[in-house]
Specification:
The complex is a heterotrimer of chains A (589), B (174) and C (434). Chain A has 16 helices and 24 strands. Chain A has 589 residues and is α/β, with parallel strands linked by helices. In chain A, strands 14, 15, 16, 17, 18, 19, 20, 21 and 24 form a nine-stranded mixed beta sheet that branches. In chain A, strands 2-1-5-3-4 form a five-stranded mixed beta sheet. In chain A, strand 8 and strand 9 form a beta hairpin. Chain A is elongated, with a radius of gyration of 29 Å. The C terminus of chain B is likely disordered. Chain B has four helices and seven strands; from the N terminus they run H-E-E-H-E-E-E-E-H-E-H. In chain B, the strands form two sheets. Chain B has a five-stranded mixed beta sheet. A two-stranded parallel ribbon of chain B has the order 6-7. The N and C termini of chain B lie far apart (53 Å). The longest helix of chain B has 12 residues. Chain B is globular, with a radius of gyration of 18 Å. Chain C has 17 helices and eight strands. In chain C, the strands form three sheets. Chain C has a three-stranded antiparallel beta sheet with strand order 1-2-3. Chain C has a three-stranded antiparallel beta sheet with strand order 6-7-8. The chains are: A alpha/beta (589), B alpha/beta (174), C alpha+beta (434). At the A-C interface, helix 3 of A face helix 12 and helix 13 of C.
Chain lengths: 589, 174, 434
């Protein structure tokens, strides 16, 4: 384009071109913008910024304040790059600048490198020496970028600005103002996504800090997301704060069980305890957000768990092996099944696989034609993520009941039936009930076989209590309120003597004389899944790679499901068989 | 360091050796087709200009997730010419049999047994294809990337001397 | 070679009849795989039954870790199979799951008698991948400490060889000398055996004040003890009888089996990595490589005795050439920041954190790095995927081919010859069995 003589001569009739900026060159790929980033041709949609254009060819431009779901602030200055169309040859922020046809972008020139280093040096100027006590350490972008783009000691030696170290912004968020780099991601999130503009920046210059309006706490139900998007350790979760170091933890791909939305999560665990949920990106369900109540809903996985089978109530209760408990359960349920005084209570907190096996046992083993619906009571709801129904799998339960021809009845009818004496025995898959007032009724049952995650009034009323493993300790899937099936994977082996519901149900079926038995949740799905598959088109059960294959510590940088370095304590197979030979043989190696 | 070796190999075995490259530190390396490795090694040892009388180190790598998954690496040395070369042989998981080079260097014996033991790669024609460091009852190949780091296998009873000496009979006993 | 003993072996009427030391000509079993022991005119022609004997792994002559199953006819070894792995600790698997820096203490435990030589070998492998060049002083320190550990290693061999052939005195002298050196090494790195001294990019500490002089004094004492050992063993009739002509391996066979180090040089092959491919500062130092001729146990012993002297020479030259300077490179990508920066600045603590928790980001690639350890070529085949942990850390243990060749070397020999052969190849379970 530089050489005018190569151009074909303009038609004589054309009026002389008015002076001004040269017309933009015609697009090389019509409908797209073509430019060059670090010598590589990039073809993107018009309006794409430099960060994303570079990312599309695998070039990383560092940034703090930019977030693809938030508006552009361009205040961290980390993403400055050289662009051939920059006025005066200035470095331009890659987050703000859309690529233009034919331009050249340099992200690795010495100028850019110097700038990145200088930016980091300034950002770290007042940063406290906190890594050792900071919850963000290990997932902190300051650390990551420092090791990538700076790697040198600071040249500046001035006192650090001191600010508040412990500001309780709200029930779930604690702010350390000294660590804050004022990227304003949290401010923009509250304004644009949560639509509750509760955060702002006060003061000026290096005295600036993030704060709420006076007397108004950060009480949004989505405030927890600001902790996730905070690139540094300034916003910390009051719940997770100081409870564990992230690099020891491993993550499993899971689904939040707090409501029927089924937000995709990473379940961070260490040994056999869940430490937190983090939202996992899924544009169709939760984008990359989740609500605070869901975030805190992991606690039942850790506390008050039923860990051993138990027989008898109150003072007569005694622990016994699973086999004996199953025999006792089968022996006491069978006469009631024959007499027609038996009922089954299914919880929509159980997974699809659990319910499939349970429904099979209920129909074939116990001859039932109807089930009662348990589940947690309804809670608050809004029009963003949270649903009133706080059960992750109600839709799944309905599908299973339909597939097996089971009539679903509400809990209130069960209480009445118990009171009238029509029901004298009950088998509960999941101890969640919408109304705890039903618990005294359960205590009147002759036989109450209960598979429960946690201790509680319902579990307390059981004559045979079977320890169930929740979704952190099992493979399976939930169907959310839209009918969308979503897989979750096993994070750690079941605690104590617990087993997933489906396994307990299968054992019960075996004790009742049914011939079949399942080894894995996958086998359950292979055998029983087709019965409900019609309602779940396109569901690939193996869409998440089987966790059984992801054994040991794979020393790849991307060895874990969330792309971070693997935790130091990956799943130990000791809980399964104690013998690696068996596991290897099972996997067909 | 040993460009001449690479060139000689490329000239002598066109199509059987490929992708020569200079590794970090100036080490020359070349890929060799699996079926030809014994022939290439024989040539490297017997050709006077090559004179690779020694194979100081043969090992395997498990590139889990890549295809072919395994790789055998032959680090060769000529003490007279004072040059080294590295031969790499890609081994697919579906066909884990590699021609042995024990006929070229007797020292390859234990290295190949090691690869068998740790990676499950079999060497066709090996005179004594047994595990080396692990015991015969051990299941699996510990250095494979998918072998669990904390895998536990039960203790096994000590074997008879006769078994070690002659190898177990058809029923595990003589 | 000064200590070469032409004319000493030969036909010696004073030699114990039947002993191998009695000379080249007096070797009736040469090449006979099923020899039955010496049959003189007065021996009764009795044929023994072949017997399978289990030696080890808990047998002192097997150095506690190797099991040899030996088929004997009389006292003659007809065939032998080795069963190793009793000391296998999964070195490679462990290291694949550690950061690059965390692997150093594991390398200490390969050849635990000369830990720093292992440290150096591993560090050079990682530095080869990272393409970093360490400061000159740290190179000298690596050579000095490495050679001191080489002296320790050879002293251990010489002393233990004497011990196992019945010379307890030699062992005590050897161990005294070795422990003096261990004291010096403790002063510089804090541990007698498991030194963990070298780092990627340099060494962990500088020599303390007055260490050089103290080490020179120690070397003088070690030299005295070495010469005493030399006098006690090298011309010792019993020792020579047990070692000369036993455990013989030819030059061709040694190469074929992959021998390196003193055991290869004992066969007459003058190959030493320090000369053939000089690393660190070996090209600036004047030292000789002793070479043997027969490849028997006696020659291997003599190699060690001479290398003790050469290592001393190397250390002394290093002390003369060394100058004050940095002992590690200053690059936070590879080397931990100095502690004042870690405790006092955010930059330091972040670099420290990333290096400790995630490890050095070694560029993707693969390399084979080789150094001359006490027993021969110590090789590391390292593969990096760009992460903080080795993708593969293949160990080429120096003692491995020698151990593999034991059945070959002792075929047709007397069972008692196994003991000096085992000694002279210096089988170290820690490195061979990984």
């Amino acid at each position: 384009m530089a050489d005018d003589t190569t151009k074909p001569p303009a038609p004589a009739a054309a009026p002389p071109k008015p002076p001004g900026p040269p017309a933009p060159p015609p697009p090389k790929h019509p409908g797209f913008v073509t430019c060059t980033v670090d010598g590589r041709e990039v073809v993107v949609k018009p309006g794409t910024n430099v960060i994303e254009a570079a990312k599309s060819v695998g070039i990383e431009v560092p940034y703090y304040c930019w977030h693809k779901r938030l508006s552009v602030a361009a205040n961290c200055r980390m993403c400055l790059v050289e662009m051939s169309n920059a006025p005066g040859g200035k470095l331009m922020p890659g987050c703000q600048m859309p690529v233009a046809e034919g331009i050249t972008v340099k992200t690795e020139s010495q100028r850019v490198k110097d700038q990145q280093r200088a930016t980091l040096e300034f950002l770290l100027l007042s940063h406290p020496v906190d890594c050792a006590i900071c919850d963000q350490a290990g997932e902190c972008k300051l650390q990551d970028y420092y090791m990538k783009y700076d790697q040198k000691p600071s040249r500046l030696d001035i006192p650090k600005v001191e600010k508040d170290k412990r500001v309780r912004l709200g029930p779930l968020v604690t702010l350390d103002q000294e660590r804050c780099i004022l990227c304003t991601r949290c401010v923009r999130f509250m304004r644009e996504v949560a639509k509750q503009p509760q955060l702002g920046v006060a003061e000026r210059g290096n005295q600036s800090f993030i704060t709420t309006f006076p007397g108004q706490p950060l009480d949004s139900k989505y405030a927890g997301n600001t902790v996730d998007i905070c690139p540094v350790g300034a916003l910390t979760s009051s719940d997770f704060r100081f409870r564990g170091r992230v690099w020891f933890m491993s993550a499993a791909r899971s689904v939040c069980t707090g409501c029927s939305r089924g937000c995709n999560t990473f379940l961070d665990y260490l040994k056999q305890a869940t430490y937190r949920y983090r939202p996992r990106e899924n544009d169709a369900v939760n984008q990359e957000w989740m609500c605070d109540d869901g975030r805190l809903s992991y606690k039942y996985l850790n506390t008050d768990r039923v860990l051993a089978p138990r027989e008898g109530r109150g003072a007569a209760a005694r622990d016994l092996p699973l086999g004996a408990a199953m025999d006792a359960a089968a022996a006491t349920l069978r006469p009631h099944a024959i007499a027609g005084t038996l009922a089954a209570l299914f919880s929509p907190v159980a997974s699809l696989e659990d319910l499939l096996v349970a429904a099979l046992v209920a129909t074939e083993g116990l001859g039932l034609a109807e089930i009662y619906m348990g589940g947690r009571p309804d809670g608050w709801h809004d029009d963003f993520l949270k649903r009133a129904d706080e059960n992750p799998n109600r839709k799944g339960l309905e599908l299973v009941a339909q597939a097996f021809g089971l009539l679903v009845r509400p809990l209130s009818e069960l209480t009445r039936a118990i009171e009238t004496g029509r029901v004298k025995a009950l088998w509960a898959v999941g101890a969640e009930v919408p109304d705890l007032a039903a618990a005294p009724a359960f205590a009147r049952l002759d036989t109450f076989v209960c598979q429960a995650f946690n201790q509680g009034p319902v579990a307390h009323a059981a004559t045979v209590l079977l320890p169930a493993a929740p979704h952190s300790e099992a493979e399976g899937s939930f169907v959310n309120f839209e009918g969308r099936p979503q897989r979750f994977e096993l994070a750690y082996w079941p605690r104590g003597g617990s087993h997933p519901h489906w396994k307990l149900a299968a054992e019960l079926g075996k004790a009742l004389g049914l011939a079949w038995r399942f080894q894995t949740a996958r086998e359950v799905w292979t055998e029983l899944g087709p019965r409900v598959a019609e309602a779940l088109p396109g569901f690939d059960w193996d869409g998440l790679p089987s966790a059984g294959r992801r054994r040991g510590l794979v020393p790849l940088a991307t060895g874990t499901v969330d792309g971070r370095l693997p935790g130091y304590r990956e799943r130990v197979p000791s809980g399964a068989s104690g013998d690696t030979r068996m596991d290897l043989l099972k996997l067909g190696r | 360091m040993s460009k001449a070796v690479i060139e000689a190999l490329a000239a002598r075995f066109p199509g059987d050796v490929y992708e020569p490259y200079e590794g970090v530190g100036g080490d020359d390396a070349i890929f060799v087709r699996k079926s030809e490795i014994a022939r290439v090694c024989k040539f490297l040892k017997t050709e006077p200009a090559m004179a690779f009388h020694m194979a100081p180190y043969i090992t395997a790598v498990d590139y889990l997730g890549l295809e072919p998954r395994f790789e055998i690496v032959y680090n060769l040395l000529s003490t007279t010419q004072n040059h080294r070369v590295r031969l790499r042989v890609k081994v697919s998981e579906s066909d884990l049999e590699v021609p042995t080079v024990t006929g070229v260097w007797r020292g390859a014996d234990w290295f190949e047994r090691y690869c068998l033991d740790m990676y499950g790669i079999r060497f066709k024609g090996h005179p004594d294809p047994r595990r080396l460091l692990m015991y015969d009852e051990f299941v699996g190949h510990p250095l494979r990337k998918d072998y669990p780091l904390r895998g536990r296998q039960p203790l096994v009873p000590e074997r008879d001397i006769q078994d070690i000496y002659r190898g177990p009979g058809p029923d595990g006993r003589d | 070679m000064a200590t070469e003993s032409h004319g000493m072996g030969g036909l010696d009427p004073q030699a114990t009849p039947g002993s191998r030391g009695a000379g080249e000509h007096d070797r009736p079993f040469e090449g006979q795989h099923h020899a039955r022991g010496y049959e003189g005119p007065l021996d009764a022609p009795l044929r023994g039954k072949q017997m399978v004997v289990n030696l080890g792994p808990s047998h002192p002559a097997m150095h506690g870790v190797t099991r040899a199953v030996v088929a004997l006819e009389g006292e003659t070894i007809v065939e032998m199979k080795l069963d190793i792995g009793f000391l296998h600790r999964g070195f490679e698997k462990s290291c694949e799951n550690l950061t690059w820096g965390q692997a150093f203490p594991y390398t200490d435990r390969l050849n635990y008698v000369s830990a720093i030589l292992n440290n150096v070998g591993y560090a050079l492998a990682v530095e080869k991948l990272c393409k970093i060049d360490v400061p000159l002083r740290s190179k000298y320190l690596r050579v000095v400490t490495g050679e001191l550990h080489r002296i320790c290693d050879h002293l251990t061999l010489v002393a233990a060889m004497g011990l196992e052939l019945g010379a307890m005195t030699v062992f005590l002298y050897g161990v005294e000398a070795r422990d003096l050196l261990y004291d010096r090494l403790t002063e510089i790195c804090g541990a007698r055996l498991t030194s963990n001294y070298v780092r990627v990019g340099g060494v962990s500490r500088d020599a303390p004040e007055g260490w050089t002089e103290k080490t020179l004094q120690t070397l003088a004492r070690v030299a005295e003890l070495r010469e005493t050992i030399d006098k006690l063993l090298t011309r010792n009739r019993i020792f020579m009888d047990r070692t000369k002509g036993t455990g013989v391996i030819s030059r061709e066979d040694a190469l074929d089996f992959g021998f390196t180090g003193p055991c290869l040089r004992a066969t007459g092959e003058p190959y030493d990595v320090r000369k053939a491919a000089p690393y660190l500062v070996y090209d600036r130092i004047d030292f000789d490589i002793p070479v043997g001729s027969k490849g028997d146990n006696y020659d291997r012993f003599l190699m060690r005795m001479e290398e003790l002297r050469q290592s001393e020479r190397i250390v002394k030259q290093c002390f003369q050439q060394m100058e004050p300077g940095d002992i590690v490179i200053e690059d936070f990508r590879f080397v931990l920041p100095p502690k004042p920066l870690v405790y006092g600045t955010i930059e330091g603590v972040m670099a420290h954190f990333k290096l400790i928790m995630e490890g050095i980001k070694v560029p993707p690639g693969e390399a084979y790095s080789y150094t001359e350890a006490a027993n021969g070529e110590l090789g590391f085949y390292v593969v990096s995927d760009g992460g903080g942990r080795p993708y593969k850390l293949g160990l080429r243990a120096p003692g491995w081919p020698m151990l593999a060749a034991i059945p070959h070397m002792t075929k047709g020999a007397l069972l008692s010859d196994l003991v000096p052969t085992y000694d002279s190849i210096n089988m170290i379970g820690g490195e061979v069995e990984q």
